């Protein structure tokens, strides 16, 4: 019998895959981030339109908000600096432009904090982090990445991929499109993600922030949409 040697690097990659898994019980499948209204009103009604919608968000919101803040949250978790983590959670919540998007951030944050507690990541001496991480799903992702010693660049790449996959799946259901169309969109987005991560890593604190009016309008209008499958 051949016994495989498992390296620390392999374990870290597998832990990242676990964080990115659609089976992670944090409710990502329940949110469309305004895409449900955009599809209902005809803004996003084709494969090309969905690809453009997500590409625009990737180049703006992800590059200038989520990814640079995720990087700073990982650094705060590595340094065990709860005050710094709290600062970036507050910054992130302020940059979520609608009540639905802020509710998604906190709702998924509570679910992820509960999960991390169940996985033993928030036992002593880290138990004091639990209430803090409940305020933001991005902070929980950062804390887990730091605890499992996942390279920050890999964490950012993985987070961007997970975001793209979740919203592509939502779009495929809502428009609707075939699964193959969804894979073509993901192929296109995957080509953009490394550049987005690289740009995010170069940003100074003062450069963090983005204006995404179409997303804000769609999310705001979704709050009163007559029939809804998604919570945002």
Automatic annotation (TrEMBL):
Pfam families (alphabetical): UreF
Main location as per UniProt: cytoplasm
Domain of life: Bacteria
Gene3D superfamilies hit by this protein: Urease accessory protein UreF (1.10.4190.10)
UniProt similarity note: Belongs to the UreF family.
Entries under HAMAP family matching the protein: UreF
Assembly information from the UniProt record: UreD, UreF and UreG form a complex that acts as a GTP-hydrolysis-dependent molecular chaperone, activating the urease apoprotein by helping to assemble the nickel containing metallocenter of UreC. The UreE protein probably delivers the nickel.
Protein name according to UniProt: Urease accessory protein UreF
Lineage, uppermost ranks: Bacteria, Pseudomonadati, Pseudomonadota, Gammaproteobacteria, Chromatiales
Gene designation per UniProt: ureF
């Amino acid at each position: 019998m051949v016994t495989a040697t498992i390296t620390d690097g392999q374990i870290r990659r597998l832990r990242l895959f676990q964080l990115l898994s659609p089976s992670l019980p944090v409710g990502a499948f329940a949110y469309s981030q305004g895409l449900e209204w955009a599809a209902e009103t005809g803004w996003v009604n084709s494969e090309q339109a969905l690809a453009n919608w997500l590409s625009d968000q990737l180049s703006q919101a992800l590059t200038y908000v989520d990814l640079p803040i995720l990087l700073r949250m990982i650094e705060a978790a590595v340094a065990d600096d709860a005050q710094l983590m709290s600062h970036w959670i507050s910054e992130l919540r302020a940059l979520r432009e609608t009540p639905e998007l802020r509710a998604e951030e906190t709702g998924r944050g509570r679910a992820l904090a509960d999960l991390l507690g169940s996985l033993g990541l928030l036992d002593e001496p880290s138990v004091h982090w639990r209430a803090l991480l409940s305020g933001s799903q991005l902070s929980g992702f950062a804390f887990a990445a730091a605890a499992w010693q996942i390279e920050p660049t890999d964490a950012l790449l993985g987070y961007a991929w997970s975001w793209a996959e979740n919203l592509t799946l939502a779009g495929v259901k809502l428009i609707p499109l075939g699964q193959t169309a969804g894979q073509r969109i993901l192929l296109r987005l995957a080509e953009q993600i490394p550049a987005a991560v690289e740009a995010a890593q170069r940003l100074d604190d003062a450069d963090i922030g983005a204006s995404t009016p179409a997303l804000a309008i769609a999310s705001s209008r979704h709050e009163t949409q007559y029939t809804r499958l998604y919570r945002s």
